[in-house]
Amino acid sequence: MCMRLISVFALLAGAGFAQTPGPCDRACLEGFVNQYLDAMVAHDPSKLPVTPDVRFSEDDVPLKLGEAFWKTASGIGTYKLYFADPQAGQVGFMGTMKENGRGVALVMRLKIENGRISEAEQLVLRNEATAASLEKAKAPDPILTETVPAADRLPRTQLIANTNLYFEAIEQGNGGVAPFHPDCNRFENGTKTSGALGCSAQLDTHVFDYIQKIYPRRFLVVDEERQNVFGFFMFNHPGDITWIKNPDGTRHEMGAAATRPFSVDVGELFHIQDKQIRKVEALMVALPYGQKNPFVPQQ
User: Fold this and answer.
1) Cα-flanking dihedrals φ and ψ of residue 245, to 5°?
2) pLDDT, greater one: 160 or 206
3) What DSSP designation does 246 have?
4) Tens of pLDDT along 177-201?
5) What is the DSSP letter of 151?
6) Neighbours of 213 (CB within 10 A)
7) How far is the first Cα of the chain from the last one, in angstroms, to the nearest whole number?
8) For residue 153, what is the DSSP state?
């Protein structure tokens, strides 16, 4: 456990968690997101202030800024969720958009250096049902956007450590490993997936044992004011666990989706309340097994 936490912090040290020159507060960072979205719909990256060596990826494929969804984006939806980290100069976003008139969901991250975008990565969920579900909600859960009183906040290192335990709990099939709030729920691609059991007890059933490794774990945006942690996390499914034993001793067959090799890049937001994981919001894209992330030099 300690070694894993050490590796997380080592990764953070190389992922831009240093004070960036020049002030860019929450409003500034969210403004960059809005500029980015507008430029995508206009199919014109020249509208953005970017560094000469700006890096861009979509669905974990390194591309030139202006390619892929940049050529097909046709509108911005109503659901918008921002998370900002002025200390790191990073900002994240989950929201709805249109692609040639069809609804899609987008999760993205921008890194800002000296008033310019130096990194942009995004996942595009080309699933109209997911987009429709988010649009139906109209706005994010207020718990994700409220400012937490300073006396009730955990420091950024502890926010990251608590969030990391979520992935340990999944890998170990043990909800007691992570500090889950009694009212914790998880939403993935616009749908509640923590079931009637909730975040902790659901893991105790071992229903997620087919997820054998979650790596890399990239904690990129720590929104201390709102006690949110966002990052991209690669869920790896070898496909060789086809069944598990239920707590009552009966056999539970894994579904077809769990019995094939694939990886899933998950843009995931965690809200910490009372020092516990209170809510999880995730948007994800399935990828070939073993897919590498271009922003991680060594995997």
Assistant:
1) -95, 125
2) 160
3) -
4) 999 999 999 999 999 999 999 999 9
5) G
6) 13
7) 19
8) P
- Is the previous residue joined to 216 through a cis bond, with omega within 30 degrees of 0? yes
CA nearest neighbour of 58 among 49, 46, 45, 47: 45
Query: Are 110 and 54 within 8 A, CB to CB?
Result: no
Give the pair of three-digit tokens for residue 185. Answer: 């729920």
For residue range 106-153, list pLDDT tens digits in order.
999 999 999 999 999 999 999 999 999 999 999 999 999 999 999 999
Question: Quick one: which H or E segment has residue 140?
Answer: none
Exposure on the CB side of residue 278, measured as CA atoms within 13 A: 14
**Whole-angstrom Cα distance, residue 265 to residue 123?**
8
Euclidean distance between CA atoms 232 and 163, whole angstroms: 12
| Both structure tokens of 17 | 């968690």
Top CATH class of 2-14+145-287 equals: alpha beta
Strands 180-188 and 276-287: parallel
pLDDT at 247: 78
pTM above 0.85, yes or no: yes
- What are the Cα distances from residue 137, in Å, to 81, 172, 267, 279? 12, 33, 19, 16
- The answer to whether residues 281 and 268 touch, using CB atoms and an 8 Å cutoff, is yes
Domain with CATH 3.10.450.50 in the chain: 2-14+145-287, 26-140
Instruction: Choose which CATH entry (3.90.226.10, 3.20.20.150, 2.60.120.330, 3.10.450.50) describes domain 26-140.
Output: 3.10.450.50
Chain mean pLDDT for the chain? 92
Q: How far apart are CA 119 and CA 87, in angstroms?
A: 16
Asked whether the predicted pLDDT for residue 61 surpasses 70, the reply is yes
